[in-house]
Amino acid sequence: MQETLVIPLYGRKMCLELYPNLYRDETALRLMEQIDYDFSLLSQKSKSLMQQFGFLEAAMHQNDLAWEVRDYLREHPNAAVVNLGCGLDDTGRSCDNGSCRIYNLDFPGVIAVRDALLPAGEREENIACDLNDTTWFRLVAASACVEPGLYAGLSEPE
């Protein structure tokens, strides 16, 4: 299991434990139970105030992003939500309005893990690609992009 997948997931779980009145993430709890990974080193580091603030900051960033996506979907209910560098993030699902399309994009190895732990649902597609190779643009009909760590947007066709 790649650390780049585990660290954000662990942060979401810790934020849930530390700040239950501010943050809920049942998916993070479920995934933490399913993953075969030694979390002891992360657990040791998680006791510092700086790490705890980092957990909160990352979770609040995800919440803010989800708020913006839900707001956008209210005015554009059939839009596509594109989660760039998705890892094990489920922002698209948490914002699903019942009519949007959800695309989760990441490297092939990441998508293989994602397919095993978070298989694509109805109107959702996990796409293995290199984001630097723009051929993925042809696979996605999008009017908005979402990502937990990098910002990008595709404009609506006029």
Description:
The chain has 158 residues and is α/β, with parallel strands linked by helices. It has helices at residues 3-18, 26-34, 40-45, 49-75, 91-94, 108-117; strands spanning 80-84, 101-106, 124-128, 144-146. The protein has a 4-stranded parallel beta sheet with strand order 3-2-1-4. Helix 5 links the parallel strand 1 (80-84) and strand 2. It starts with a helix and ends in a 12-residue tail after the last strand. The model is unreliable at 149-158 (pLDDT under 50).
Condensed summary:
The chain contains 6 helices and 4 strands, in the order ααααβαβαββ. With 158 residues, the protein is of the alpha/beta class.
Query: What is the spatial order of strands in the main beta sheet?
Result: 3-2-1-4
Number of strands: 4
Number of helices: 6
The proportion of residues in beta strands is 5-15%
Classification by helices and strands: alpha/beta
**Which ranges are low-confidence, i.e. pLDDT below 50, for 5 or more consecutive residues?**
149-158
State the shape.
globular
Rounded average pLDDT? 83
Order of helices and strands: HHHHEHEHEE
Distance between the termini: 42 Å
Determine the fraction of residues in helical runs and give it as a percent range.
Answer: 40-55%
The main pleated sheet reads as: 4 strands, parallel
Radius of gyration: 16 Å
Give keywords.
158 residues; alpha/beta; 4-stranded parallel β-sheet; 6 helices
Helix and strand arrangement:
Elements: H1 3-18, H2 26-34, H3 40-45, H4 49-75, E1 80-84, H5 91-94, E2 101-106, H6 108-117, E3 124-128, E4 144-146
Parallel strand pairs: 1-2, 1-4, 2-3
Helix pairs in contact: 1-2, 1-4
